[in-house]
Amino acid sequence: MLSVRDLSMRFGGLLAVNGVSLDVNEREIISIIGPNGAGKTTVFNCISGFYKPTSGQITFKGKPVQGLPDFKISRLGMVRTFQHVRLFNRMTVIENLLVAQHRHVNTNLLSGLLKTPSYRKKEGEAMEKAAYWLKKVDLLPLANREAGNLAYGQQRRLEIARCMVTGPDLLMLDEPAAGLNPKETRDLDELIVSLKHDYNVSILLIEHDMGLVMGISDRIYVVSQGTPLANGTPDEIKTNEDVIKAYLGED
Ligand SMILES: Nc1ncnc2c1ncn2[C@@H]1O[C@H](COP(=O)(O)OP(=O)(O)OP(=O)(O)O)[C@@H](O)[C@H]1O
């Protein structure tokens, strides 16, 4: 579904990503791990269109996407969350999900102004979808709260729901467990696995919580100082000497 080949990203004199390649197949949970500053978020930013990579090829569902702007990439079915939650804080929880759907499809301004039957039908469907995903992430009772007033863990779940209402094929999560308590992390674990099994979504994940990564990943890519270090199943990665050294070297 997603194929990244020889991706590099240079910021001035710093080669933040150096020759990273990875694949995500249908219904796979793939993690990218590595010490702080390894270049993981930069890889995400290149794949999702926030940065234009210095070099490399990125194809999604067979189409080259490197250099496309983020909104075009998300319309192709690849959506992401951010390391620092980005919601519309002054809007309600449900409004956040409605806006996400509006931004995702080309809505016709005139039909919106005239409130044509087809527009009303779409509005109804958007509302149903929003309610469905709020229920799934346990936020339905809070639908009319301001998003900015939610607890941190709830905001993170809302971000995932906001991605899911757009019906993605690939969901990219940047450190979704950061700042969550153990119970919230377990719920997140279940949610991610359910997205794969019940909704056929592939997941690309950056995460420092090794319990979560090792428990849910089909395969793991390790990067260190921008460079690919290893890739394999959780069991292969756990016992890889280079990986152990890179992590111990961090302390
Ligand atoms: N926009 C930017 N301009 C200049 N340097 C950047 C930019 N974005 C990232 N970097 C640098 O690139 C390197 C990789 O950063 P990146 O955030 O991708 O690492 P990371 O693996 O995601 O780290 P962490 O786990 O701490 O989030 C770092 O040295 C960082 O300072």
Automatic annotation (TrEMBL):
Residues annotated as transmembrane: none
Annotated PROSITE patterns: ABC_TRANSPORTER_1, ABC_TRANSPORTER_2
GO biological-process terms attached to the record: D-alanine transmembrane transport; L-alanine transport; L-isoleucine import across plasma membrane; L-valine import across plasma membrane
Superkingdom to which the source organism belongs: Bacteria
GO CC, alphabetical: plasma membrane
Keyword tags: Amino-acid transport, ATP-binding, Nucleotide-binding, Transport
SUPFAM superfamilies, alphabetized: P-loop containing nucleoside triphosphate hydrolases
UniProt xrefs under InterPro entries: AAA+_ATPase (IPR003593), ABC_AA/LPS_Transport (IPR051120), ABC_transporter-like_ATP-bd (IPR003439), ABC_transporter-like_CS (IPR017871), BCA_ABC_TP_C (IPR032823), P-loop_NTPase (IPR027417)
Pfam families according to UniProt: ABC_tran (PF00005), BCA_ABC_TP_C (PF12399)
Gene Ontology terms, MF aspect: ATP binding; ATP hydrolysis activity; L-isoleucine transmembrane transporter activity; L-phenylalanine transmembrane transporter activity; L-valine transmembrane transporter activity
Domain ABC transporter intervals: 2-250
NCBIfam families given in the database record: PRK11300.1
Family membership noted in the UniProt record: Belongs to the ABC transporter superfamily.
Name this protein carries in UniProt: ABC-type branched-chain amino acid transport system, ATPase component
Native organism: Hahella chejuensis (strain KCTC 2396)
